[in-house]
Amino acid sequence: MTYGKRLSYLIVIDSIIVAFAIFISTFLLNYNDFLTSKPIVASSIVLLLGHHFFSYYYNLYKRAWQYASIGELVVIFKVVTFSVILAALAQFILLQDIYFRALSITWMLHMLLIGGSRFAWRMFRDTYMNTRNKKKRVLVIGAGSAGMMIVRQLRQSVDSDLNPIGFIDDDIRKQNLEIMGVPVLGSTEDIEDQVRQLEIDTIVIAIPSLSKIEMKRIYEECSKTAAKTQIIPMIEDLMTGKVSINSFRDVKVEDLLGREPIKLDTENIAETLTGKTVLVTGAGGSIGSEICRQVSKFNPDQIVLLGHGENSIYTIEMELKNTYGDAITFIPVIADVQDRERLGEVMKLHRPNVVYHAAAHKHVPLMEANPHESVKNNVIGTKNVAEAASDADVDTFVMVSTDKAVNPTSVMGATKRLAEMIVQQMDNISATRFVAVRFGNVLGSRGSVIPLFKKQIQTGGPVTVTHPDMVRYFMTIPEASRLVIQAGAMARGGEIFVLDMGEPVKIVDLAENLIKLSGFSVDEIGIKFAGVRPGEKLYEELLGKDEVHDEQIYPKIYVGKSINADLSVVMDFVKRFEYMDKLGVRERALDIAHNRVNSEKEMLYAK
């Protein structure tokens, strides 16, 4: 219906309502001279014209009545009241008297009929039009502001296929009440029973400020049911208008980590990065590319994107240029960290203030099968980047390390620990501040367990887990990258920074959650235990026994103590490995890697 046609209908309807209100009020008061009294007829015309004038003035005819609420009721009150006051003035001027009782009844009838005609349309949509089609039955977790907005929008939307049936809320004061006509059915402990009794199809978690621990607890209750569980967007996105309140999304594994993300000391970081030149090795990788994204938020002068893979470097360069335009200079550099001369040229050409070293081989089973390459990339590569940074007078060098460097049982872990020790040694002999940052497994990174599980679920399963008791620490890629940046800002030299990653997660529990989040049951997909792979531990450590500091130096960040390692053994190993590799005696270099890294690992700690 066009606006002009709609306006015509409303004017006709309102005119009939006003005339009817006047007629009924005079009839009830036995004003027999109503039809013959010209002043009274004149005041009635004034009332009618006044109604249309104030309706236009307060945009009463432009209201969308299917969304009518208290605001619309206030507008109706103003229109009716001012119209009656105007009619009273007309009576006083024409009759030198005011028919108070007639005008009072007219006001009440006017309010009742105008308001009723408008709100009847919303009631019709909410009751008949929204229930005539089969809709999914929804249980809303959280009877707060967000929950009420969800119910309001779901009921007002004809296109939505969701019908809110009830609330769940742990607030005792809300129990057994009705909010917007929807009952509060119990606490989160009652989710399973209510879903079964009410035949709920979808559960919507409507608490934007919910902590990770509470989210995990509530999801565990929801996962006991067959209903699909969704969550509303983050409160920041709602406030900025990026998404609407009913833009539900599926619960992600990241929501169930049970730990809160780290908050950055933005002022300290800004001092380190703003207006500076930053170089990131492995800039095309999962961690390296995210470090580039996070660093860009602090307005550096330029970022050198160094990596070995041209496609990944091109991808992150295009993404950053599209986001920041010419505000930041992005310099793509194709280079291998094993090429010492090339690294020296790059460092001296661009003179970075801060270097984030994220380039590394990280896949444990592959490095077990290729220890030679692991040593060349993780140990020799780190040494090359560190020495080039020192020669170029870099202010701060931050190495990305791993929890597998603690009491390593794998080639990858041992090479990363060797790299840490080289970085600590460089801090002793260089003016550059050298630090390392350790964290656990990263969700969504290349080679991580989540993409593997998703592919296995998509193909119908089973999901392969190495061991039922296998546990790991997890964090998201943005969190890991923020930690690296925070560590660089806090660096004094020689530290190994570690994030408080909360409680470790059992891999089998992670697999079960991912199966359920994908809309299947564990019985449908299945879980197969494949056995522990070479080099893997059942559990990981973030700090060795001799490294632990009990106090946090920053919320959720610890720093490990420096240990007395025999660095001469490490440097001797590196020199001999490089010498054999240059001579082309690959078998001898490989033998050194096996003996020193994969088997004995006696060089890692002083006896």
Automatic annotation (TrEMBL):
Pfam families: CoA_binding_3 (PF13727), Polysacc_synt_2 (PF02719). Keywords: Membrane, Transmembrane, Transmembrane helix. CDD domains: UDP_invert_4-6DH_SDR_e. It comes from the Bacteria. The chain crosses the membrane at residues 7-28, 40-58, 70-92, 98-116, 137-154. InterPro entries: NAD(P)-bd_dom_sf, Polysac_CapD-like, Polysaccharide_Synthase-Rel, SAM-dependent_MTases_sf. Residues 278-560 form the Polysaccharide biosynthesis protein CapD-like domain. Signal peptide: none annotated. Belongs to the polysaccharide synthase family. This is Polysaccharide biosynthesis protein EpsC. It comes from Guptibacillus hwajinpoensis. The lineage of its organism: Bacteria, Bacillati, Bacillota, Bacilli, Bacillales.
